[in-house]
C-alpha cells in the first residue's frame, strides 16, 4: 500500500542526504539542492524526513523517492533496477561508514523511536498515501494554495474517519490492533474526514498527529489530536533556533517554512503558555516574535499581548508582537509579498516593552481609526439604521457603539421604547443580531409585544383567536416573521435565571460576538441585575453601573440599559452612577398628552444630541417619530 514492505528496511536505513555527496542548503526545516533530473537544473529539489525517513522530491519536475532511489537514478541509471538498487544500497552503506559525526546534524537523526513512534509514523504514512488518493483533500489543499507535492514535504495527509483500513495496513507492518488503540487513543472518537499533520518534538520524534477540519473556519479551533500527549509543544519546533517566530495557524507555519524562513512555530490556536516559552528557550531562543491575526475585540487582544510580554520577560526573552491588518493572514502575506517582506517587517518592528507596546498599539489604533473614517462616504450612515426614527438616525449618524441608559415618565413607556428600538434595529439592519434581556417581565410578554407592534394591535389581541380572520392572519404572519428572526439567529430574548450574573453575561456575550460581530444588547430592568463582584463599591447602583461599563468596554457594542430615573424641575436625577457612566441618556417623557424623546450626551460636554416629538400607537404601544 503506502510502503513497499519488501524494501521497508532499506528505506529506513539511518542514511542522511549528506551522504549523497551533493551540495545542500538548509531551507526551513528541510534541505534543498539543485535537481539533477531535469534541464536546466534548478534549486528545487527538497530532501525531507516528514514520513520518518529521508526522501527527496523536486517541486518542478515531480521526481521523488527515497535516498536509495536517488542514488539509483543519479549514479546507476544505466543498470537494471535490481542491480542499481544493490549498487545504491552498497554505496550508501559505504558512505555511512565513512561519514563522521556532523556537528550540524540534528539530534532527531540519531534518535531511535520506540513503539509509540512506530505506530504514529505508520499512521502518518498511511494518511500520506490516502491524501494522494483523495480528491477532497487535494481540493482542500489547492484552496489553501498547496499542491500534493508540497504537502508531502511536511507529511500532510488525509484521514477519512474510518479506522478499519488503517488497522489492516498496520497488520502488514506487524503492528497489533491493541497497540494502535493504545497510542492513537482518540482515533475512534473523531469520525469526520480531516487533513492530518505529524507533530514532532525538538528531537524530530512524532509525539502526536493533528487532524485539521477541512472547513475553512479558523476562528474556532479546527484542530484535534489523534494521540493523547503533551499539548504544550509548539508545532514545527526545531533545535538551535535563537529567534523563533510564533504564529497561530498550522498553514501559517508551513507556508513560512516552505518559503525558507527557519524556526516558525505554531500554537495551533491554543493560548500561548509559559510551557511553550520554556521549550523554545531550551531550543536556544533568546527572543521571540509573536504574529497574530487581528481580532474584532482589539482591547482584549491588547491585554493578551501584554500578558505574553510579561511571560517572556520572566524568561529573559526579548519580545516582539505584530498584529496583521484586518482579514490578513501570514499565509496570504507570504504568498502575496514573499518571505523578504515578512523578514523586513520583523526587522523593522521595535522590541516590545510595556511602554513601547502601548505606544505601538496606540499608533495602530489612530491609523486604523483614520482609515475607517476616510473609508466611509459622506452620505453613508456610520451606525445602525432606525427607519422609524429617521431624524434621530441622521442626527446621531446611526446607533453606534456606546452605553445608553433608557428611562421614561411614566415608567412603563421605557419597555415600549426599548421594544420599538429593538424591532426597528432588526428590521432595518440585516446583519444585526439583537439580544433582549428581560429582567422585569416574562419572555412571552416581550414576544407578544413584538408581534402586537408588527400588526398594530394590542397585546391582548394577540393572545387569543380573534373574531376577524384577517387579524388572525396578520398575527400568524407576524409570528412567523419573529420566528424567522429567531431561526436566522438574529433575535434572542432571555429571561432572568438564578445563576445569571455579570460574569456569566460577559462570558456568554463574548462567545456571541465571535459569531456575530454586529451584536446589540438590551437589558430591560437593570435595577434587578445580579452583580457578583466589585465589593469595593457599597452602593448597588455604583456596582451595577461599574460592571456594565466593564462589559461595554470589553465588547465595544451598543448596550442599552432600561432603568428608573426621576425628573425634578426638568433635571434628571438619581441614580447618579448611570448618569455619569452612560454615553447617552434616552429620556421619554409625556407632557400634556404629547410624547418627547430627549437624548443627552454626558460624554460630549453635557450637550443635547436630540429632542423630538414621538407618536405612540394607542393599540400596540409601538413608538416612532412623528
Give the integer mean of the pLDDT values: 86
Query: Structural class of the secondary structure composition?
Result: alpha/beta
Please give the largest β-sheet. Answer: 9 strands, mixed
Distance between the termini: 77 Å
Rg (C-alpha, Å): 32 Å
**Global geometry:** elongated
Spans of at least 5 consecutive residues whose pLDDT stays below 50 are: 1-12, 96-113
Number of discrete helical segments: 22
Number of strands: 24
Query: What fraction of the residues are assigned to beta strands by DSSP?
Result: 15-25%
In which range does the helix fraction lie?
Answer: 25-40%
Q: How is the largest sheet built, in terms of strand order?
A: 16-15-17-18-14-21-22-23-24
Fold topology:
Blueprint: H1 8-11, E1 25-27, E2 30-33, E3 45-48, E4 55-58, E5 64-66, H2 67-75, H3 81-98, H4 107-110, H5 115-133, H6 135-143, H7 148-152, E6 157-159, H8 164-172, H9 177-183, E7 194-200, E8 206-213, E9 223-225, E10 245-247, H10 250-258, E11 264-266, H11 274-282, E12 287-292, H12 298-314, E13 318-323, H13 330-337, H14 339-348, H15 354-374, H16 390-396, E14 402-409, H17 413-428, E15 433-438, H18 443-455, H19 469-487, E16 491-495, H20 502-515, E17 519-524, H21 540-555, E18 558-562, E19 566-568, E20 571-573, H22 576-581, E21 584-591, E22 594-601, E23 607-616, E24 623-625
Parallel strand pairs: 10-11, 10-12, 12-13, 14-18, 14-21, 15-16, 15-17, 17-18
Antiparallel strand pairs: 1-2, 2-3, 3-4, 4-5, 6-7, 7-8, 8-9, 19-20, 21-22, 22-23, 23-24
Amino acid at each position: 500500500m503506502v510502503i513497499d514492505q519488501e524494501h521497508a528496511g532499506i528505506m529506513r536505513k539511518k542514511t542522511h542526504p549528506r551522504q549523497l555527496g551533493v551540495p545542500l542548503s538548509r531551507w526551513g526545516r528541510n534541505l534543498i539542492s539543485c535537481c539533477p533530473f531535469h534541464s536546466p537544473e534548478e534549486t528545487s529539489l527538497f530532501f525531507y524526513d516528514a514520513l520518518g525517513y529521508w526522501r527527496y522530491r523536486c517541486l518542478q519536475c515531480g521526481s521523488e523517492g527515497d535516498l536509495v532511489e536517488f542514488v539509483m537514478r543519479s549514479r546507476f541509471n544505466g543498470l537494471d533496477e535490481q542491480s542499481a538498487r544493490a549498487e545504491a544500497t552498497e554505496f550508501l552503506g559505504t558512505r555511512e561508514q565513512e561519514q563522521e559525526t556532523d556537528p550540524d546534524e540534528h539530534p532527531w537523526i540519531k534518535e531511535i523511536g520506540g513503539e509509540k513512534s512506530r505506530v504514529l509514523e505508520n499512521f502518518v504514512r498511511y494518511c500520506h498515501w490516502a491524501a494522494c488518493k483523495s480528491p477532497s483533500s487535494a481540493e482542500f489543499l489547492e484552496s489553501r494554495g498547496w499542491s500534493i507535492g508540497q504537502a508531502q514535504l511536511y507529511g500532510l495527509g488525509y484521514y477519512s474517519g474510518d479506522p478499519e483500513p488503517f488497522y489492516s495496513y498496520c497488520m502488514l507492518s506487524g503492528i497489533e490492533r491493541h497497540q494502535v488503540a493504545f497510542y492513537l487513543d482518540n482515533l475512534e472518537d473523531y469520525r469526520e474526514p480531516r487533513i492530518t499533520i505529524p507533530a514532532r518534538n525538538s528531537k524530530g520524534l512524532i509525539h502526536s498527529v493533528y487532524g485539521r477540519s477541512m472547513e475553512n473556519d479558523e476562528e474556532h479551533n479546527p484542530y484535534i489530536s489523534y494521540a493523547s500527549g503533551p499539548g504544550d509543544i509548539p508545532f514545527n519546533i526545531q533545535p538551535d533556533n535563537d529567534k523563533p517566530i510564533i504564529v497561530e495557524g498550522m498553514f501559517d507555519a508551513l507556508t513560512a517554512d516552505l518559503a525558507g524562513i527557519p524556526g516558525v512555530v505554531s500554537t495551533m490556536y491554543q493560548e500561548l503558555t509559559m510551557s511553550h516559552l520554556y521549550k523554545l528557550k531550551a531550543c536556544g531562543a533568546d527572543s521571540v516574535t509573536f504574529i497574530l491575526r487581528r481580532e474584532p475585540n482589539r482591547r482584549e487582544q491588547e491585554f493578551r499581548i501584554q500578558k505574553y510580554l510579561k511571560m517572556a520577560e520572566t524568561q529573559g526573552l526579548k519580545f516582539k508582537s505584530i498584529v496583521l491588518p484586518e482579514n490578513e493572514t501570514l499565509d496570504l502575506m507570504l504568498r502575496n509579498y514573499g518571505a523578504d517582506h515578512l523578514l523586513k517587517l520583523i526587522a523593522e518592528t521595535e522590541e516590545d516593552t510595556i511602554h513601547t507596546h502601548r505606544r505601538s498599539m496606540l499608533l495602530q489604533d489612530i491609523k486604523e481609526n483614520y482609515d475607517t473614517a476616510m473609508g466611509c462616504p459622506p452620505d453613508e450612515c456610520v451606525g445602525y439604521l432606525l427607519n422609524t426614527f429617521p431624524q434621530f438616525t441622521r442626527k446621531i449618524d446611526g446607533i453606534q457603539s456606546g452605553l445608553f441608559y433608557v428611562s421614561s415618565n411614566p415608567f412603563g413607556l421605557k419597555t415600549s421604547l426599548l421594544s420599538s428600538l429593538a424591532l426597528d434595529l432588526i428590521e432595518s439592519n440585516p446583519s444585526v443580531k439583537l439580544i433582549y434581556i428581560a429582567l422585569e417581565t416574562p419572555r412571552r410578554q416581550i414576544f407578544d409585544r413584538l408581534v402586537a407592534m408588527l400588526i398594530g394591535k394590542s397585546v391582548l389581541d394577540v393572545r387569543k383567536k380573534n373574531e376577524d380572520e384577517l387579524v388572525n392572519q396578520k398575527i400568524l404572519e407576524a409570528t412567523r416573521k419573529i420566528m424567522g428572526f429567531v431561526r436566522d439567529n438574529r433575535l434572542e430574548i432571555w429571561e432572568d435565571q438564578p445563576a445569571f450574573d455579570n460574569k456569566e453575561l460577559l462570558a456568554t456575550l463574548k462567545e456571541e460576538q465571535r459569531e456575530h460581530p454586529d451584536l446589540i444588547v438590551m437589558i430591560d430592568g437593570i435595577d434587578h441585575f445580579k452583580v457578583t463582584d466589585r465589593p469595593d463599591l457599597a452602593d448597588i447602583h455604583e456596582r451595577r453601573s461599574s460592571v456594565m461599563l466593564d462589559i461595554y468596554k470589553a465588547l465595544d457594542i451598543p448596550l442599552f440599559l432600561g432603568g428608573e430615573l426621576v425628573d425634578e424641575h426638568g433635571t434628571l436625577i438619581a441614580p447618579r452612577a448611570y448618569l455619569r457612566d452612560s454615553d447617552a441618556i434616552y429620556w421619554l417623557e409625556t407632557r400634556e398628552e404629547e410624547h418627547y424623546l430627549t437624548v443627552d450626551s454626558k460624554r460630549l460636554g453635557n450637550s443635547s444630541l436630540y429632542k423630538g416629538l414621538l407618536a405612540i400607537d394607542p393599540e400596540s404601544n409601538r413608538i416612532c417619530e412623528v
